[in-house]
């Protein structure tokens, strides 16, 4: 261990306390009020339509489908993808004809690069912002799985879609590792031109199911 | 990467590599594009004003009881298997991080763009101990390979055009790892692909990652990083050891509070409804070893200033840069620190103290038009803090300095002069002196003194 962490801890806390000498002694954190007049929920267009609109705006590919197995096969065929990595808990009913390898035990990260793509579910989707949130649940897997392969095919159930950001946070468990995805990876670093796909998957395809 | 060496040597150094015309052109394009996008997505949010008040109040609550929240955060992170370190200043933070990296036996680390680690110049400290830090954000990569300084919080390489970037990739990538393809074209897609290949090997082999954080939730111990490219996700998830250096002001009290900032930040920053990627993790995650380094480095002095304290609310969105007429002309490098633009003008002198001519001149790098205050998602009254800092400069200055400041003030902020100038800018623009007197000359020597805008900001805003 470098230095003496106790000393700096005490020093910083003491500096903070003396810096705040203007704050009334008796004031507790909750006594300082935060106005929360913002809208935690809203009404508006159908959440599915809204989510589709926002995802398309981000250059994601989106389909509303009934039969997941078929839709997965079609999506993979369109792309010419053959080998897919999937989280341990993806139900077999999602899998058509394609060759899949379950991430159980975890595949070495270097090997993930060799897959044509990854198929997962999600925890929550936010319609207004076009965001899909993964919480490392059985259908979503660890975070690296949806990051290293170049193509992410994601199944979103209608009952997982909420309208607003506050509604989404309410449904999430902060102790789980969370990944919020809004469209494919992108950069605007070169003369402000948007380029999709720098390090994350260059293609995000979403299947919305009943 | 080079350290910021302060004024005036830095502007001299930068003016060699960056032609003013190019920089100004790029900056103008960047600030105007982002500004327009931001306005659109902010208008889309019907409760923006209420979110802004909530955001400001949540940050004020945090700051007024920072000791409580720091202890709470430490407890939560520790309970979740992380280790918390406290760093009083840059040197200590660098010692802690360097020690942690050395303990892993590694000599290479991957980094996510982070202003806190730039502020403490961590890369140089690591280098001195034989550890190479690889920046992985595309713009930071461009800056690092080009051996220069970031010029904007959000688009750090905005001073480089595509042809320059191609040149940098071709000549420098090989020395850092996978070379750029010999037939590299200069279109953004090809350049991004070259960066993707170059960095992929690095991500997959790195065993230590270093990041900052946008937010740290005291209640749960959750850290939050917003980004676009996925380099953040790579650095945060693939290495076995993750070290996050986080300013003590980055705390928000509760999980629910994130609902405010996850709306305010992306829309204010890149003008998107949501940034492409956000990672949130609590303590040691998915088998990783996690260290959180809590950084003071001057923040407690800012906290002690009742007027200046509000600068610590800043969520680093860069909206204030994009509306600032001075920033648009001067560019990020002129502010001599990692915090450019209006927020830099109030944060740098407060963090470093009025240490020299640069710090003393920064409070004058403003027309006080108020645009920064209007766009700030946490309602930091930047003009108020600027005026307060100016009065401190004037009171403590020597007689000569006082005169110089007086002169500068007449140029830059006499309300009457400015009002006249703004209304008849066409004629009066040419009256602006090309060079500021006294200590300010360092600031104006390498760039044109900002001209008053053709149309006052408020007129422009009203007719927008
Ligand atoms: S001062 Fe306000 S507008 Fe400027 S970067 Fe900070 S939060 Fe954004």
Number of helices of chain A: 5
How many E strands of chain A? 12
Q: Do you know the CATH architecture of chain A?
A: 3-Layer(aba) Sandwich
Instruction: Return the CATH class of chain A.
Output: Alpha Beta
Helix and strand pattern of chain A: HHEHEEHEEEEEHEEEE
Query: How many strands in all of chain B?
Result: 10
Strand content of chain B: 5-15%
**Secondary-structure content class of chain A:** alpha/beta
The top-level CATH class of one domain in chain B is Alpha Beta
Cα-atom radius of gyration of chain B? 22 Å
Tell me the strand order in the biggest sheet of chain A. Answer: 1-12-7-4-2-3
Numbering strands along the chain, what is their spatial order in the largest sheet of chain B? 1-10-7-4-2-3
Which regions of chain A have little confidence, pLDDT < 50, spanning 5+ residues? none
Report the sheet with the most strands of chain B, covering strand number, pairing sense and barrel closure. Answer: 6 strands, parallel
State the helix count of chain B: 24
Instruction: State the end-to-end distance of chain A.
Output: 54 Å
* Arithmetic mean pLDDT of chain B: 81
Structural class of chain B: alpha/beta
Query: Can you identify the CATH superfamily of one domain in chain B?
Result: NagB/RpiA/CoA transferase-like
Q: Main beta sheet of chain A, described?
A: 6 strands, parallel
